[in-house]
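Recap from last week: sequence in, structure out.
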Amino acid sequence: MIVKVIEVIASSEIGIEDAIQKAVTEVSKTVRNVDSVYVKDIKAHVRDGKITTYGVICNISFRVDS
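Predicted structure tokens:
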């Protein structure tokens, strides 16, 4: 079995969990057999002392069909 890993960046105005889900949802539209997501980094954009968006950098792994 071969597993490939791609790196994606996603953001959300709702929260970190939503940003991760958006990353997985978007990748799953074009990639089959997604196995896991590893969150490499988390960040938040701030405006006027309040968080406006959450961002995540994720490694998403998927099995390659043989």
